[in-house]
Specification:
The protein is α/β, with parallel strands linked by helices. It is built from four helices and nine strands, in the order H-E-E-E-E-E-H-E-E-E-H-E-H. The N and C termini lie far apart (about 95 Å).
Length: about 190
Amino acid sequence: MKPMRRQFQPRRWKADLPLPSAIVGVLLFTLLLLSACSSSNGNGATVTTVTSGGLGQSGGATSGSSAQVGGPGPGGVGTVVAGAGGSGTYVDITADELATMLKNKDFLFINVHIPYAGEIEQTDLFLPYDKAAQQLDQLPADKNAKIVVYCRSDRMSRISVDQWVKAGYTNLYNLDGGFEAWEAAGYKLLHK
C-alpha cells in the first residue's frame, strides 16, 4: 500500500481581520501632520508654505514675506521653489523672463557652470558651483540682494542656489533649464 500524500492547500487570508490600531494611529498622525503643512491654492492644487527659516517661520524668497511653493515669484515672475531641506525658497525663471529682466538689469548675474562652456551676455561673476558654500565672500553682504544664477542645464545652479539659501540669501533666481533653455528659446550664448 502506498503512503497517502497530503495535497498542498494554500491558506486563505481572512479579510475580516482588523488592522492593528498602532498602524491606524500612525496613518492618522501622518495625515494630520501633512494637512497642517499644506493648503489649497484655490485651483485644486496643494501648495506648501516654506520660508527662509523653514516651515512656519518668517522670511523667504519674496524679500521678507513667505512664498507659496509652486506659486508665482515676486511681481508674478517665475515659480517659487523650495530650497533643499526646506531651508527657504528661490524662484525659477524661464529664458523669456530672464531676457525681460536683462533689459532693466538690477541684479548680480552669476554663471556657476564648470568647466567654462559659454555665457549669457551681462554675466557679472563666474563662480564654480562646487565651491558655492566656500565663496560666500564673493556675494553681496546684503542677503536680500537680487541674484540670478545659471549654468548649462540648471543642475549646478540649483546646487549653488541651495547653498546660498542655506546661508540666508532670500532673493535668489535660477534660470530653469540653464543656458541650454536660453539657446533653445532663440537667445544668443557667448563663447569667449
